[in-house]
Amino acid sequence: xxxxxxxxxxxxxxxxxxxxxxxxxxxxxxxxxxxxxxxxxxxxxxxxxxxxxxxxxxxxxxxxxxxxxxxxxxxxxxxxxxxxxxxxxxxxxxxxxxxxxxxxxxxxxxxxxxxxxxxxxxxxxxxxxxxxxxxxxxxxxxxxxxxxxxxxxxxxxxxxxxxxxxxxxxxxxxxxxxxxxxxxxxxxxxxxxxxxxxxxxxxxxxxxxxxxxxxxxxxxxxxxxxxxxxxxxxxxxxxxxxxxxxxxxxxxxxxxxxxxxxxxxxxxxxxxxxxxxxxxxxxxxxxxxxxxxxxxxxxxxxxxxxxxxxxxxxxxxxxxxxxxxxxxxxxxxxxxxxxxxxxxxxxxxxxxxxxxxxxxxxxxxxxxxxxxxxxxxxxxxxxxxxxxxxxxxxxxxxxxxxx
Length: 403
What we know:
Elements: E1 6-10, E2 13-16, E3 21-25, H1 37-47, H2 61-73, E4 80-84, H3 87-104, E5 111-115, H4 124-127, E6 145-148, H5 163-174, E7 182-187, E8 190-191, E9 197-198, H6 203-214, E10 217-222, E11 245-248, E12 260-264, H7 266-273, H8 291-306, H9 309-325, E13 333-339, E14 342-347, H10 350-362, E15 365-370, E16 373-376, H11 384-401
Parallel strand pairs: 3-15, 5-6, 5-7, 7-10, 10-11
Antiparallel strand pairs: 1-2, 2-3, 4-12, 8-9, 11-12, 13-14, 14-16, 15-16
Helix pairs in contact: 1-8, 2-8, 3-7, 5-6, 10-11
């Protein structure tokens, strides 16, 4: 099947051009599933009134409504929200905000600390933040980046004993160049493209303290994990901390339209509000805060709240994790890990992972794959019947791997 030939979806299922149906457990932005009447109606109704407008010229009520809704989900300190079109643009905006904030305070800095296996976008700047081989590019790196390698294998990173080695690695990175103090630490609370890596409990809380000690901002990339995916509204809520900037995107409009949010502490915003040239956070593009995207986002947030999808995801995630853990040691499976409905199955060999994903597709199940890691990320609106079908089809696919 050519995946770009999908033509119709309903709930957790999608059909291709030949009419074959698949359970979609591969789409991280599929918060509420396909063909949700409330979201489709909201987008269509808005299109009949005002499809969009350049927010640098004039605003519309939905942009403010989304900004307020997102801010209300954040810790009270993160009270300012900027809308962009994508997670990549959101990360770029976050770094520009951080850099200009340091400049406005009279302490210009540019060095950013990231995880070597992190992923933050597809532009030259955001690709430069990662050490993943497939993100290498032929251009000059636009800012200094200090990469931090995981001190233990991915399958061991969620264990308590990984906390201190991970913190030691970050401390070394923060203090690496006394002549060039760090501007910010940018990190995913659960690594997506880097292999579905779950970080140790309390790591982000401890990271917050390390950032404060070095005068660096803490930027959390929730592009893949925000809006309930991990069983919390935002994945950083698994720890106790308040970031300086949070970037969220994929789940905000349930994939019905492109949108991202950059949430900023009031203390950071104030530096811009007092500047005669900036006069606020102005880092968007012509279609940022597009009215159709905003309509989809508001309808999505309404459904997350109405159906208590965050708590539901936490419960179903525990079930899915337990079901897939039963396959440990089968077909070369070395680890099963995850948070909420973001569950990763790590194989000892990449070939086995690739074979399993191809076999799953043959059995009507779409999965994600990053190297040796296969990910199951069904919609948050899934129920027990969807999970049962997912596990059964995964088992059928794995049977082919073990032959």
